[in-house]
Amino acid sequence: MHEVEIRNACLDDSPAIACLMSQLGYLTFPDEMKERLVAILVDPSYMTFVAEYQKEVVGVIGVGVGRYYEKNGTYGRLLALAVDEKWRSRGIGASLVAEAERWLKKRKVTSIVVNSGKQRSAAHRFYERLGYEETGLRLVKLLL
Fold first, then answer.
1. Fewest C-beta atoms under 10 Å: which of 47, 58, 77, 105?
2. At how many degrees (to 10) do helices 30-40 and 14-23 cross?
3. Sign of the CA dihedral 50, 52, 56, 58?
4. Where is 21: in which H helix or E strand?
5. CB of 79 within 8 A of CB of 62?
6. pLDDT tens readout for residues 62-94
C-alpha cells in the first residue's frame, strides 16, 4: 500500500497503539501505553514502527533483539503486531513485518521468533505465508 507510510513510533502514538492493543484483546489505556513506550522507545534492543494513513495510525509492530544462550549470536522477536480491524487484509501487516525484518537484519540477527496464541489461526496462516514455521510449544506460568 503506497499511501500507507511506515515510520518509527513516538509517544504521541500512545492512544492509537493502545487502541490497537485493545483490539487484539489486551485492554490498554493510552496512559498505560505511554508509560510502556517511555521505556521501550529509549531501549536500543527494541524498535516500534507504526503504519500511518493520512495522519491516522492504522497498524503497529514492536520488535526486539535477544541473545542466545545455546549458541553465539542474536535473534529477533516480533513482540507485538496489530492492524486496525478496518484496515486488515490490505498488506499493512506484511509491510510492518518487512520493515521489522529489515531492522533486525541490520542488527545481524540469525533468526526471528514470534509467539501467537493457539486461538489465532488466521495469524498463524499470515505468518506461515511470510515464511515463518511452527517449531515448538510455548509454556507460560503467571507469577502475579
1. 105
2. 110
3. negative
4. helix 14-23
5. yes
6. 999 999 999 999 999 999 999 999 998 889 999
